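Suppose a classmate hands you a notebook page containing two proteins, each written out with its sequence and a corresponding row of structure tokens. How would you begin to make sense of it? This section walks through that situation. The first entry is reproduced here exactly as it would appear on such a page.
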Amino acid sequence: MAIVTIDGQEIEIGDDERLNGIQAARRAGAEVPHYCWHPGLSVVASCRMCLVETGTKDKETGEVRMMPKLVPACQTPASDGTVFVTDSQKVRDARAMVEEDLLIRHPIDCPICDKAGECALQDYHFQHGREERRADIKPFTSRRRDLGETVTLFVDRCVMCSRCVRFCREVAGTAELMIRDRGAHEEIDVFPGFPLENKMSGNVVDLCPVGALGDIEFLYRQRVWFMKSHDHVCGGCSAGCSIRVDENQDHVYRIKPRENPEVNQWWICDEGRYGWGHIHSADRNLTASRRGNDGEHRALETAELVKALDAALRASGRLAVVVSPFLTVEEAYLLSRYAKSIDSEAALYLGPVPVVGEDETFASGFTIRNEKCPNRVGVEEVISHFMQGNCESWEALLSRDDLPSLAVWVSGGSPQPLDHTDAAEALSSAALLVVHDLFGSPLYEAADFRIPDAASLEREGSYVNRSHRLQSFEWAVRAPAGVVPAGRLLWQLTGGHGLYRAANVLQEAADAISAFAVAKGSIPSQGVDLKVNLLA
């Protein structure tokens, strides 16, 4: 066990840990400012903002011998006996000098910069900069050029930290970005004929510590201090990346990655970053309705829907349910339990699992999954529990000969409208057809009960990704008026009292289903590994 001294405080570092001065200082509660360093990238020590005093402490005598010059904390390993001083006058003067140097050439255009409010240069200037500007204020230019379809560069704002260049080389493995020219003329640019078009390109905007790189989709749309941030899980594929949703008045403006070393580290793909447009689509289903004896649909309020739907299902007697892989674990559990309470022999089927191409793995190991649904694994566990280990796909339902005697409930939730023409032809013969989905389809048109569903960011609950990691989340935005999220609808159908709380349902599911036993109690932000149960 290594002992490191940070500003007079001794901390322990494990034998298998490899920390630098920035990371060691954080463990001691001290924040060392930095621009170029990032835990997911190689170390270049170019910005010099993290300069600290360092030395060694003799274990025998306790004598401390300090080095005469400051060193970059990002490049200095924290080994046994290392001493770091992060807040001396010498260190403070060095930081002020670096800040002053950056601001001599940096345009002071904070009022029009998207990064204002979350800019490291702003924050560090107030914390570590000089009290007065010693250089003359000069007119600035605002040169801007697009690096690709999603990222634009404000050239004069760049502090040359090179994070974006290293990301494209080391994480994405595509290396479109480079540093051209030298000295005071250095600039970030793309190689001629190779625009920034890799499927992880949006991450360079998150990495930029200032406003040099901008997200074209977000540019000038919203000020960061007006938005609220919500932790969530991406529903775009079975990777289950941890994300942060930024919204204002239930309108999503951007999605950014949330650090999770067990799933996505610090990154998300552009598909997940920009794949939320369907939430605000004008084509969404917004009104629940029931087909009358005349064949016409009549709109239903939520209370009417719950009562009429429950009565119709119980009158049908026999029931088959398609459990969508877009539902949360809690919704799938409630739907399955409700179906079995009506018909103990009710058949449960796994809904359609969209698959597009092959898995795509990048240089860092980050993988975009070809399975374009968030919770196939979790739904399979729920179905297998209620069906005594059996989990069939919904194609088995479509081939049944006794459909005219069955009430069929089809859950959905796909962000992309699905062509269910063949399913509509087969299931239109069912005694009763209930379809709960985001968008219209031939199957939705054939339904006796049409129920609009919530999008992934409007749900609360848990997803289990392809690696069997369960992550829980709260809803980020409210569903539009008239939309009944599956969890709330099923909570009322099953006779639940009070407001729907997914966390309470998960605890019930954890008690009933051994695969979820590890999910008892509170779920940490990085989730829990269900494979612990599978291996037990």
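The notebook's second entry, a different protein, reads as follows.
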Amino acid sequence: MRNTFYYLITFSLLLFWSSCRNNLEFQTLERDLNFSKDTVYLDTIFTNIGSSTYTLKVYNNSQTNISIPKIKLQNGQNSKYRLNVDGMTGDIPLSGNEFSNVELLAKDSMYIFIETTVDIEDLVNNETQFLYTDAIEFGQINPQKVELITLVKDAVFIYPQQITTSDGSLETQTLFFDLDGDGVQDESNLKGRFLQADELNFTNEKPYVIYGYAAVPEGEILEIDPGSRLHFHSNSGLLVTNNASIHANGALSLDSDLLENEIIFEGNRLEPGFEDIPGQWQTIWLFNGSTNNKFNYSTIKNSTVGILSDGNQDNDNKLEITNTQIYNSSNFGILGRATNIKAENLAINKSGQSSFAATFGGNYDIIHATIANYWNYSFRQFPALLLNNFTLDEEQNLIPNDLISANFTNCIIYGNDNPELLLDNIVQANFNFNFKNCLLLFNDYGNIFSGPYYDFNDLMLYENILFNSSPEFLNPSQNRLQIPTSSPAAGAGINLGNLNTDITGSQRSYPADLGAYNAIEFEN
């Protein structure tokens, strides 16, 4: 009986094994594959910067297991593309350009992963952008093809300097500044380099790609021409040091989509998937001691902090911002610390903490600003607008400093949380502010906020305020902060400021509309 049982088991295993062998027979196939797309667009990349990874799905819709005799790049070993076929890296390991006898089961599919890195100098001379193409071929005789297309842009690259250490290894140079004003250069933890004299004028001829921090040397001015494009790698930014300045001299654009004359500060990933991702780079940091900083017709997006302005609260020329947009900041759109900021026609939205934070006191004069916060990635702790008059030292001790003035006129302060204003003060320092002709989201459902600064009947602090009325933004989740003529913010302002146009260049009406944008008729 036992022998019969073992015989049956052995016979069944042999039948199963034989069946598996028949099912795993593969037939060579030259054609009749199906693909998820006939062309793979790898979007735009900068020269010598690797692309994201793109996918192509290959289908075997037949009832037969097949073996594809050859999958290869049309340009062969000279191709600038790299392939990974279902985890395989090529006939020559890691080459990614040719694969032989690739098996695919019946009614199954596989992924091909595609990347590229292109040096534009290898393609054509005297061009700032070039369309690089290739194709993936499937089979050997009259092969099927999937086209590959990438737009490659030339750029001016600003890299931190590399120094050779005593053991022969390379190390990225760290910047030195006189941080405490004692005349001695102190080492910071910021990696980067100072801009050279011939680099202090950014033009619109080519984009600029910055790795690490690019610092404006003491006493120098970085001039940025209209239409310039600045792209920052992760953990990168601009520093403006003692007695130095930045002049971002943008101009009004005729095309609201192209923004051809706008100066744009953003990350260096150009693929559409990175278009609105916060925190791709660090900040534009205006050091204590920098002066006469100006931003006009500028767009700052996808940073950690859009503009960080430190110190010089008594310097009326510290920072002037006009006709500027700041979007998708993972922390703050504008962070002021004991500083002096004047702004007119300013739009800020989607910040992980506050869109505008006037902290550790200072002087602020803000006219026709749309300070919105429709952050939608996670919970945020702070409102759209934060005012305070103190900071904390390393031991968490309070350090007071006067909020000398914080004037907000013809502004919209709104968002997807409530309230969108926080007055965070201590009695050891002055706390002076004023809101005039503003629309403000502040609904204290739980009677949490108290004290004289939250007395909205005090006309010395709050004058002609619209509370908790939706401004009816066009589409704030897409940073479209225009308001319609039906908005309660339309015609609710007073005529004040140095500009007689809104952020789009349209003539201001009388009475003025609140915020950075004139009210318009929305299209249905």
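A careful reader of the second entry would note: The chain has two domains: 27-153, 156-478.
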